[in-house]
């Protein structure tokens, strides 16, 4: 098993940047493909970005492509989401997720392990 803890959320203004972190503990971090998801009030959880276990490939939702960057440091057991040019519609609770496997996975049903979430609020 792996335990996941997100951090880095907060209140920012439109156009600002934030970097989220997801710290993993438990089994070897490099076993796991990772993803970021978000859920806004009254909406379903949606895919944001995913990265394969080696960190060499990533996939993004169209809504964040070009603004967000997913990365991971397997030596630090941590995944990141660099969020630039934030918009009010990016406001949500952001969750990191993990599953074993060699590919990139964009369906939340693919993931076995979830963090508790971190709130990101973009407002002027």
Can you describe this structure?
By secondary structure, this protein is mainly β. It has strands at residues 2-7, 10-12, 18-26, 32-39, 46-51, 58-60, 68-73, 78-83, 92-100, 113-114, 118-122. Strands 2, 4, 5, 6, 9, 10 and 11 form a 7-stranded mixed β-sheet that branches. The protein has a 4-stranded antiparallel β-sheet with strand order 1-3-8-7, with no helix packed on it. Strand 5 (46-51) and strand 6 form a beta hairpin. The radius of gyration is 13 Å and the shape is globular. It starts with a strand and ends with a strand. The mean pLDDT is 96.
Rg, rounded, reads 13 Å
Percent of residues in helices: under 10%
The average pLDDT value, as a whole number, equals 96
Largest sheet: 7 strands, mixed
Write the layout of secondary structure elements.
Elements: E1 2-7, E2 10-12, E3 18-26, E4 32-39, E5 46-51, E6 58-60, E7 68-73, E8 78-83, E9 92-100, E10 113-114, E11 118-122
């Amino acid at each position: 098993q792996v335990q996941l803890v997100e951090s880095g959320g907060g209140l920012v203004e439109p156009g600002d940047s934030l970097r989220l972190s997801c710290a993993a503990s438990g089994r070897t971090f490099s076993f796991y493909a990772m993803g970021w998801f978000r859920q806004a009030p009254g909406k379903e959880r949606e895919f944001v970005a995913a990265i394969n276990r080696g960190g060499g490939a990533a996939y993004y939702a169209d809504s964040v492509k070009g603004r967000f960057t997913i990365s991971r440091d397997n030596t630090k057991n941590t995944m990141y989401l660099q969020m630039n040019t934030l918009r009010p519609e990016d406001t949500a609770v952001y969750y990191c997720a993990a599953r074993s496997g060699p590919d990139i996975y964009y369906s939340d049903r693919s993931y076995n392990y979830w963090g508790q979430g971190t709130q990101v609020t973009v407002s002027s």
